[in-house]
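Workshop exercise sheet. Pairs work together: one partner reads the sequence aloud, the other fills in the structure field after running the prediction. Swap roles for the next sheet.
Pair: D.N. / O.F.
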Amino acid sequence: MQNKLVFILQLTVFSLFFIIGSAQSPDFTFAGLEYSIGKTSTANVNFPSLSPQQGVLFTIGTTNNDNSHEWKRQLNYPETGVTFSYVSLGNSSQLGNTFSVVPYINFKVMQKWSSRYNLKVGLGASYFPTIYDEIENPNNKAISTHFTWAFRSNLYYDLMRSENYHIKLGLGYFHNSNGHTRLPNNGLNTFLFSVYSQLNFNKKEVTITEDSNQSSNKTSQRYFTTRFGLGQRVLSKYNNDSKDVYAFSASTGKIINKTFKYGYGLYYRLYKDYYDYIHENGTLVAELYPEYRDNATWNASNIGVFGSGELLLSHFGIEFELGINLHKPSYKFDWQINEEKYVDGQYQLGELNWYYKLKKTVSSRLGAKLYAINTNKVPRHNVFLGAFINSNFGQADFSELTLGYMYSLPIKSRMK
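Structure field:
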């Protein structure tokens, strides 16, 4: 029940982000209808046979071709919106269908060669009626929860375009994963071709003008921020109840031109599943790491440093972090349990090899934030709510809801 609640909250947060973002003085709105077809990669041994994945997608969005907010100018006036999709996964009995809601931002790219290319990137949530079941559906190890994260990326080419109508051809990638809230979680990865048609309406004439002061000045602003997070994860397929991760972080950095936020800081996390496994003297603790029991809290903790980058889009932020774990001792038995293999009639623990060391060392974090106060107004005080997926070198670690506070010094400007 807890992991369902997490994903419902994530879906609500993401929807709010783009409802707010789409309401910000667009020069016109549009609706799009898209058909996609593609190939889904095999997720595990004995994975169900698949016919091509097919989907129908409906998009509502706005253009941002005005100077009402600095981020629009800095990002070359991108489009924002929400895509709703229905996808047939290519095997009705074992994989079924999925329904997704994915907020997105659409950038103009490759402008030196052509004005017809754009890149759409979105992160949201999916619902799967058909999921893994140990007895009734054991070969579908890709999806084991009804709610998952959904990531979409599409490169489009404007095949036909007029003032009121566009037709685009697209190449895309679609990924679904539950963020390690339940195992197995091999995920679904699909590469797609699509045809997209778009109708523009509520069009207003907007002239993009360069403000001489804006174009000649570069602004910066020092910030300090703290955040508290509540995550959800499972330890292994043998202990598949979702448990909490308690996270705290403090960081500082600069905001450039009210849009690009760069920072660095420290994080601390306490994993309840690690703590319980140590406290209850789990098999590997009893046999290999009995010293962990001397201080279960410390050995269930994770400490690290990170660098971050964020795009500030008024009330909305898209953030990515890359970190180095300085202390995460329990990842040792985590890896050994989850990388266990059946060889020559017996189970062998995962090997503590170079790949283990890489995953233990490198962390990352991707998600979105909703700010209470429009960041374009450069407030001194702001609070935010966010939804994130955390990973070990790209492999999901836990899903997180976070609440944070940001304090900013007065904005500074200097001539370029």
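Discussion prompt: Residues 212-216 have pLDDT under 50 and may be disordered. What would you look at next?
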